[in-house]
């Protein structure tokens, strides 16, 4: 059995004004961070209300992935800067780069 919630148009309009994935500190939009060239794979995320307080499962491959909290140093030297539901933002020597979850 499926359950659907019907929301008034005013509520939907208000939700559309909110940035669903938060914002990256440097550019104002996480989608503006270019894709990383680091040899890393994002296997999963646990994003909180604040992108700077999340966890991500990252490794050279999905099989070698480990859980990292924001601020942690990743293999290769990048730091995990922010976590969103579909991507993470890495800090590589002061430059922000995005690492996306693979799409099936």
Number of strands: 6
Indicate the multimeric state: single chain
Shape: globular
* Largest β sheet strand count, sense and barrel closure: 3 strands, antiparallel
| Distance linking N and C termini | 26 Å
* H-E order: HEEEEEE
Spatial order of strands in the largest sheet = 1-2-3
Radius of gyration, taken over Cα atoms and rounded to an integer in Å: 16 Å
In what range is the share of β-strand residues? Answer: 25-35%
By secondary-structure content and strand pairing, the structural class works out as mainly beta
Helical coverage, percent range: under 10%
**Uncertain residue ranges:** 1-5, 11-27
Summarize model confidence as the mean pLDDT. Answer: 78
**Count of helical regions:** 1
């Amino acid at each position: 059995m499926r359950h659907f919630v019907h929301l008034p148009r005013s509520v939907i309009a208000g939700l559309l004004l909110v940035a669903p994935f938060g914002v990256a500190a440097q550019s104002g939009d996480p989608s503006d961070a270019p894709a990383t060239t680091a040899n890393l794979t994002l296997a999963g995320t646990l994003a909180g209300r604040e992108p700077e307080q999340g966890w991500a499962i990252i490794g050279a491959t999905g099989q070698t992935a480990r859980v990292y909290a924001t601020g942690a140093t990743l293999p290769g030297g990048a730091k995990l800067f922010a976590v969103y539901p579909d991507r993470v933002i890495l800090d590589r020597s002061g430059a922000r780069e995005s690492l996306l979850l693979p799409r099936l």
